[in-house]
Amino acid sequence: MKLYVFSVLLALLVLSATAALPKKQVVITYPSDTPDSVLDEAKLAITSAGGIITHEYELIKGFAVKASVKILDKVHALSADFRPTIEEDSIVTELS
Fold first, then answer.
1. Coil vs helix vs strand at 85
2. Terminal CA-to-CA distance of the chain, rounded, Å?
3. Is the Cα torsion angle 89, 22, 43, 31 positive or negative in sign?
4. Is residue 30 within 8 Å of residue 57, measured between CB atoms?
5. DSSP state of 88
6. Are 52 and 65 in contact (CB under 8 A)?
7. Cβ-based neighbours of 75, under 8 Å, separated by 6 or more
8. What is the DSSP string of 17-77?
9. Is 21 exposed, middle or buried (0-12, 13-18, 19+ CB in 10 A)?
10. Strand 62-68 to strand 52-56: parallel, antiparallel, or no bridges (unpaired)?
11. For residue 34, which of 4, 49, 60, 82 sits 20 to 30 Å off, Cα-Cα?
């Protein structure tokens, strides 16, 4: 019983620590010749760390996420051959 209570408390601690990290809204794009496995690995790393994928793009190899800076640094270092471009997400408008 003590092990169960300890496990629950530990899980809550991990969740609260993850939620406490400031998250940034960013767009992550990759070169057009990047294999899908590289994108899948990056998305798995983001969701496993508590990040949220908010949109997946079809015309370009990329996706929008809300994640901590720490995991974004990890994603940037995942592939030496296919480096992602990570930019803050923003609204783009056309000037009339």
1. strand
2. 67
3. positive
4. no
5. E
6. yes
7. 28, 42, 45, 46, 67, 84, 86
8. HHHHS-EEEEEEE--TT--HHHHHHHHHHHHHTT-EEEEE-SSSSEEEEEEEHHHHHHHHH
9. middle
10. antiparallel
11. 49
pLDDT digit string (tens) for 29-72? 999 999 999 999 999 999 999 999 999 999 999 999 999 999 99
Q: Specify whether the CB–CB gap between 38 and 78 falls below 8 A.
A: yes
Residue 31, C-beta contacts closer than 8 angstroms, at least 6 positions apart: 61, 82, 83
Element (DSSP H or E) covering residue 86: strand 85-88
- Let me know if 47 is exposed, middle or buried by CB neighbors in 10 A (0-12, 13-18, 19+): middle
Give tens-digit pLDDT for 74-84: 999 998 899 99
86 and 28 in contact (C-beta within 8 Å)? yes
